[in-house]
Structure formats: structure tokens, C-alpha cells
Amino acid sequence: SLHIDHRNRGMRTRLGCLSHKSDSYNDFTAILPDKPNRALKRLSTEEATRWADSFDVLLSHKYGLAAFRAFLKTEFSEENLEFWLACEDFKKTRSTAKLAAKAQRIFEEFIDVQAPREVNIDFQTRELTRRNMQEPSLSCFDQAQGKVHSLMEKDSYPRFLRSKIYTDLLSQTQRRLS
């Protein structure tokens, strides 16, 4: 399968110039879990403001997650969030029969070198995860997931809070109150 490497830096900066157009409130409505206008009517300023309290508050809110995902798309780094969500889902796996195959899928998609949506983790974490794959368990991605979580929290999350997507969304909820 032919794989286009989005991590190519030059490509990313060129695309970066284009991405600002999509970094807007309209882009956000496109990826909302249900009807955007209904969703926005239900989203209170108070809720949207709470996303700034902590990264985990943002991740635990359906619309917060959607807005953050829209923001990451503009930065071409949504694979970090997709991996984190895949791990959250993986940890709920009840069937031991499915565990190994699910783990393998996540590993091939996000962890392996040259994975189609390779996440940004250090060599040690990648190797530890590779070793964990020999006997996959519900915790085999814990370290990698933790690294990706703190990377998003330190790096993308503060930028998200300053982004046009978030500020537009907040002013949208506030305008509705006036």
C-alpha cells in the first residue's frame, strides 16, 4: 500500500499555510458528533470554558474532544489523539480472544516504525511496546499512551486553547446568551 508521509517537514509547513483557512468555527461544526446547530445550542459557555481547566476535562467532553480533534487536523497531528482513543477503547476489551489481534492492529497503525499514523514517541517506549506485543495485555500500551497524552497536554492543548477554533466556539456560545 502506498503511504504518503505527512511528517515530511517541508510539506507540513507548506500545508500549514493552507491550514489556517480551515482553523475556524465552521470547520468545527463539520465534525461534531450530531447536528452542529443543535449541539451548539446544547453546549453552554460554562462547559466550553471548563475545557480550559484541564486537558482531561477536555478529553472527557464529547464536544471538547470533537473541537480538539478539529484543531489537531489543522496541525496534521490528529494521529496522537486517535492513538489515545484507540488505547482507551482497547482497555475496555473484554474478550481475550480479540485482545491480541486488536493490540496488533493498534501497534501496526500507530507504533511501528513507518506506521501509517505513527505517533511521536521515543525509541525506548517504542521498543518496550514492541516487547509487550509478545504477550499482549490490557496494559501493553500504557507507557506509550501516557507519553502521547503528556505530549498533547504540554504541546497541542495550550495551542488549542489559543486557537481560533476554540475562541470562535466560546464567542459563539456567549453570543447566544446575550
From TrEMBL:
Keywords: Cell membrane, Cell projection, Membrane, Nucleus, Signal transduction inhibitor. One of its GO terms (biological process) is negative regulation of signal transduction. One of its GO terms (cellular component) is dendrite. It is found in: Cell membrane; Cell projection, Dendrite; Nucleus; Perikaryon. It is a peripheral membrane protein. Residues 54-170 form the RGS domain. InterPro entries: RGS (IPR016137), RGS_RGS8 (IPR034949), RGS_sf (IPR036305), RGS_subdom1/3 (IPR024066), RGS_subdomain_2 (IPR044926). It holds the Pfam family RGS. CDD domains: RGS_RGS8. This is Regulator of G-protein signaling 8. The gene is Rgs8.
